[in-house]
Amino acid sequence: SVDVDIGEASSTHPSLHGGGVDLDVGAATGSHASNGEHIDVDVGTASLPDTAFAATQRLSSEDLALPDLEPVTMSEVGTKLDLARAYMDMGDPDGARNILEEVLAEGSAAQKQEAQRLMESLPG
User: Fold this and answer.
1) Which residue segment(s) compose the domain that 6 sits in?
2) Contact at 8 Å (CB) between 35 and 20?
3) Can you list the residues of the chain whose pLDDT is less than 70?
4) What is the model's pTM?
5) What is the C-alpha to C-alpha distance for residues 83 and 103, in angstroms, rounded to an integer?
6) The dihedral of CA 91, 97, 99, 100: what is its sign?
7) Angle, vertex CA 91, rays to CA 88 and CA 92, nearest 5
8) For labelling, which of 8, 88, 104, 123 has a CA lying 20 to 30 Å from the CA of 68?
9) Which residues fall within 8 angstroms of residue 30, CB to CB, at 6 or more apart?
10) Total structural domains in the chain?
């Protein structure tokens, strides 16, 4: 828990009594300053759980470890084949070649065969 000593209340601060806070709304807005209206708000006593100040806890290497990365999926390689075709359609054989080399390294047998066929159709 947190203990706060606010000392004596002065006339310039809202009065603190009985666990509540007396807020002078008129002073804040200027609209009710002449009639002296007050709103009494009881905020009670708040207790914070012990975990609220957990900044002192140490993290283990397991807490900081990154999850294992999954291997490249066949759909990702299929997307790379589509991207290589798009590069070819745009007239960028070097971009297509780079992507097709990735497919040759990562793809299934059928994907590698398609990548090889596309690679052979590239100029240069």
Assistant:
1) 1-47
2) no
3) 1-38, 41-61, 63-64, 66-72
4) 0.43
5) 11
6) positive
7) 75
8) 104
9) none
10) 2
pLDDT of residue 32: 47
Q: Which two tokens stand for residue 78?
A: 């299929």
How far apart CA 103 and CA 84 sit, in angstroms, is 9
Q: Which of 41, 40, 12, 48 is nearest to 27 (CA)?
A: 12
Tally Cβ neighbours within 10 Å of residue 84. Answer: 26
Amino acid 74: pLDDT: 74
| Residue 27 maps to a domain | yes
Q: Give the closest residue to 71 by CA, choosing from 99, 117, 108, 98.
A: 108
Single-letter residue type at 40: D
Q: How high does pLDDT run on average in the chain?
A: 73
